[in-house]
Each structure stands twice: as structure tokens, then as C-alpha cells.
Write a structure and sequence with these properties.
The structure holds 2 protein chains of 2 kinds. By secondary structure, chain A is an alpha+beta fold. Chain A is built from 7 helices and 12 strands. In chain A, a hairpin with a 2-residue loop joins strand 10 (198-199) and strand 11. The chains are: A alpha+beta, B alpha/beta. The A-B interface holds A 16, 18-19, 46-48, 111, 114, 135, 155-164, 167, 191-192, 195-200, 204, 206-207, 210-211, 214, 225-230, 233, 235-242 and B 1-12, 15, 17, 53-54, 119, 121-124, 154, 199-208, 210-211.
Chain lengths: 252, 226
């Protein structure tokens, strides 16, 4: 059982078959503040970038830290979307500074750290905020799966290009959308999983529902092992050769 | 290992990678049986694409031949890799590459419009131009400029490959990317590289050029050793 106050969580990242010789360049982070606020995020480091995985790492750490710092230890009385968005912006700016410094040591520019960002910050029963640069998706589902909200992938014209936090115009591609109260389950995923779980521009519930049900009834360790096996299974590999990350959280 | 039960994957139309190959079917390709090596390479392309779960659903191929009797001939119209059957290219005539490339660029825009009409996601198209000589049609230079502009504005990624005594300087006018010289008649290695590149999943920023594996086993980069 997860010990996080207010939320049960699970998540995993698996390397895609076409990256089998490399490390997986997806990263994810899920944490709950002492005041019970969920921070869940996924970053997909570009396979074409030399330090894509490191970029994804830096982005996860800095955005999660900036949000945690802003949220502090208390229990929020309401969702201040503007302040949360500012914290995300600060976190990305900090990750860029850190990537620049690391790049200077390695003799490479920011583009060597290309990574996408998708995440959610949610206050139990009060709603929250999706934040997003590029592809991947974040999904909030109401109890009994009767309603959902999604922050959908955005790529530009081509499916093999997307937007990264390392580009000069990153703020033009940073998107926020509100999560209203009443959604108790959150999924955050990289593009390897949107290929399996989105039907066109909508979530395919026969994909997400069984996963949510299983994770809710399993220990975190057992759940993550089975999630890993599922995302790395023959059916999933035949459909997408990309790295795959899925994070799940459910308010208790 | 235990899988999560009852998980149903979405049935999506696979994203497409449009790929046009403009092949030189001029008489000179009969020398040293270059045309035979080219045709063997096409057969290998067919087999290798079909062997990969992702590539056979993703790659859409159009093969154009320049030569005689028609300046530009569609030898294989747009087809999914899973149904691709390698054509037999003949060596006959001159090399109207300008007309071939113009036709390729038109076909690419038409194909993209079809994807958009059907809500099918697609990658930036690839255009390969292979010749053992140089363009022989009178306004090839205007066509080369159009091709270079199409690449520069992100409409297509253009790769030019010279065989034998090909005029790489003229070939280089078609793309900002440096033309490559085929090592001997390493068509098989070239098509294998093309097929393997098509299944890679990594993304780049819209403003950047596509990154491909180094073509070291089939190409000689002009001006460099090896």
C-alpha cells in the first residue's frame, strides 16, 4: 500500500523495443505534499538528443520541486491556478538553467537535453491544473469513469516532431488547463502510451479502466510490476516501439 | 509475469511515413549491371519492411522512375509497406531528374492532403533521389530550387544519392543536405538503412532536421576519407 497521505499512486517507465540497446529516456515523478496535494509528471527525453534522458530527469526534479516549494506543508483551501502555473514556469526555467550548466561542462547546447513535459497537480476534492509542453497526455477521470478531462498531445504538423522545454520559444508551447473538482483519478503518460490508450483525440476507456481497477486493488509493488509487464507485453510492443510511461493516482 | 487483465488497446490508424523514391532508369544504369543491383536492393527493402510490425504499417511508398519512354513513370503507386511488391526497374533513356523530383513533390502534397482528410497522423515525408549521372532535362535547375525550398520550409526531407560517376555537384543542388556517394553498388545496404531508419521512433523539434543513423556501410561522404 502506498503511504502517501490522501492518494494511492503507482507508475512505471519501460524502454521501447527500438530503444532496447539504449536506456529508456522517459522519466516520471509522483509525489504527495504533506498537505495532501498530488504532483504527477512525465517527461519524454528525445531519442534524437544526446542527453534527452538527463533533460527529462532535470525537468521532473525541478518542476516537482518548484510546485512542492510553492505548496508548502499546509492543506490548500482552494486551487490558485495562476500561482500553480507560475510555479510550473519557475520549475521549467530552473531546469533550463541546470541543463545549460550541465551542457557547458559537456560542450553541448540546450538542444542536447530535449524533453517534453506533461503533468497534473491536484488538491483532493478541489480540482487542480494540467500543464503540458508537446506530446504525451494527462487524464482526469471521475468516479465510475462517467466523465473525463484530458490535456491532449500537441505536435504541430508532423507526428515525428514535437515541442520541448529546451526550445527558445518554450513558453509559446506551454499549455495549462483547469481540472474541476469531482475527478478522483489521474493518469499521466508519455507518447508511447497515448498510442495505446487514445482513440483519436479521446481516451479509450477500455484501456484505462482495467488498469485503474487493477492498481486500486493491488499493492504498489505488485501493481507496478503488472503495469510494467503490460506496457512491455507483446501486444503493446507490436503497436508502439517507443518508450512507455504511465503514472496513476487515485484520491482515497 | 502477470499482465493486467482485460486491457484493450485502442485501434488507431497507424501514423504514416510517406516515402518517395525517384530512381534513375537511364541507359547508363545497365553498365556493370547497376540496374540489377538496384532491383535486388528493392527486393530487400520489401522484405525488410514487411518483417517489422511497426514499419510495415507505417511506411507508405511511391516509386518513380525517370528515363524513357516516359520521362517520369509511376512504377509503384502509393502503397502501404505491408502490400509493397518490389518493382523491376529498366535501364533505358536519359535522366530527366528535374521532372521526376517535381512529380515527387506534387505527389507528396497530394498524399498529405489525403491523410489530413482522413485524420491520419503522419511524419515529415522522405524523398530519395538516386542517379548514376546528372539531370538531362532543360529546366532541372528550377526544379532543384523548388526541391531545396521544400526541404528548407520543412515540407519534406530530401536525400540525394549518387551511384558511380554521378555528378554530385549537380545532385547537391536539390537539397541543403550533402549528397552521398554510394559505395560501389551497395544498394542492398542502402535500402536496408532506409528500412531501419523508418522504424526508429525518436522525435525532433519542428525546426530541426531529421536525425538518421550514420550511413557508414553504404555511403562515401564526399570530401572526407572513407
Amino acid at each position: 500500500m502506498s503511504s502517501a497521505p490522501g492518494w494511492r499512486v503507482a507508475g512505471t517507465s519501460v524502454a521501447g523495443p527500438c530503444h532496447a540497446n539504449d536506456d529508456c529516456q522517459d522519466r516520471h515523478r509522483v509525489q504527495v505534499t504533506p498537505g495532501g496535494v498530488l504532483i504527477a509528471l512525465v517527461s519524454d527525453g528525445a531519442g534524437s538528443a544526446k542527453f534527452g534522458g538527463e533533460g527529462a530527469d532535470l525537468l521532473c526534479v525541478h518542476v516537482a520541486n518548484a510546485l512542492a516549494l510553492h505548496l508548502g506543508k499546509g492543506k490548500p483551501k482552494a486551487v490558485d491556478a495562476q500561482a500553480l502555473a507560475r510555479a510550473v514556469d519557475d520549475g521549467i526555467a530552473a531546469a533550463r538553467t541546470a541543463a545549460e550548466a550541465l551542457g557547458a561542462e559537456q560542450g553541448v547546447g540546450l538542444a542536447a537535453f530535449h524533453a517534453t513535459l506533461v503533468g497534473a497537480v491536484v488538491v483532493p476534492k478541489k480540482g487542480g491544473l494540467f500543464f503540458h509542453i508537446g506530446d504525451g497526455a494527462a487524464l482526469a477521470v471521475a468516479p465510475e469513469s462517467e466523465r473525463w478531462l484530458m490535456s491532449a498531445p500537441r505536435n504541430g504538423e508532423y507526428a515525428d516532431t514535437t515541442y520541448f522545454f529546451t526550445e527558445p520559444d518554450w513558453r509559446d508551447h506551454l499549455r495549462f488547463s483547469a481540472i474541476e473538482p469531482g475527478y478522483d483519478t489521474v493518469f499521466v503518460m508519455s507518447d508511447g502510451v497515448t498510442e495505446l490508450g487514445l482513440q483519436g483525440a479521446e481516451p479509450h476507456m477500455p484501456f484505462f479502466e482495467p488498469i485503474g481497477r487493477f492498481l486500486a486493488g493491488a499493492s504498489r509493488e505488485e501493481g507496478e510490476l503488472a503495469l510494467r509487464a503490460t506496457l512491455d507485453g507483446e501486444a503493446a510492443r507490436g503497436r508502439s516501439n517507443d518508450d512507455k510511461t504511465l503514472v496513476w493516482a487515485q484520491a482515497r | 509475469m502477470t499482465l493486467i487483465p482485460d486491457v484493450a488497446l485502442a485501434e488507431n490508424t497507424s501514423q504514416r511515413l510517406p516515402c518517395v523514391v525517384v530512381l534513375d532508369g537511364s541507359s547508363s544504369m545497365a553498365q556493370d549491371n547497376a540496374i540489377g543491383a538496384l532491383n535486388d536492393g528493392l527486393k530487400l527493402l520489401e522484405a525488410d519492411l514487411k518483417a517489422d510490425d511497426v514499419a510495415r504499417q507505417r511506411v507508405r511508398i511511391l516509386v518513380l522512375r525517370v528515363g524513357a519512354p516516359q520521362d517520369v513513370e509511376v512504377v509503384t503507386d502509393w502503397i502501404d509497406a505491408i502490400e509493397f511488391e518490389a518493382p523491376e526497374i529498366e535501364a533505358n533513356g536519359t535522366t530527366p531528374l528535374g521532372a521526376g523530383v517535381r512529380r515527387a513533390l506534387d505527389e507528396i502534397e497530394t498524399e498529405k492532403a489525403r491523410y489530413r482528410d482522413h485524420g491520419i497522423p503522419y511524419n515529415r515525408p522522405w524523398l530519395f533521389v538516386l542517379t548514376d549521372g546528372e539531370p538531362t532535362d532543360p529546366d532541372w535547375e528550377a526544379a532543384a530550387d523548388e526541391c531545396r525550398q521544400a526541404e528548407e520550409s520543412g515540407r519534406v526531407s530530401v536525400f540525394c544519392v549518387g551511384v558511380g560517376e554521378a555528378n554530385l555537384a549537380k545532385l547537391g543542388r536539390f537539397s541543403p543536405r550533402q549528397p552521398l556517394a554510394l559505395k560501389g553498388l551497395a544498394f542492398r545496404e542502402f535500402f536496408l538503412w532506409l528500412s531501419r531508419s523508418a522504424r526508429a521512433g525518436s522525435k525532433s523539434a519542428p525546426s530541426e532536421n531529421i536525425q538518421m543513423a550514420a550511413p557508414s556501410d553504404w555511403a562515401v561522404v564526399p570530401g572526407r576519407a572513407g
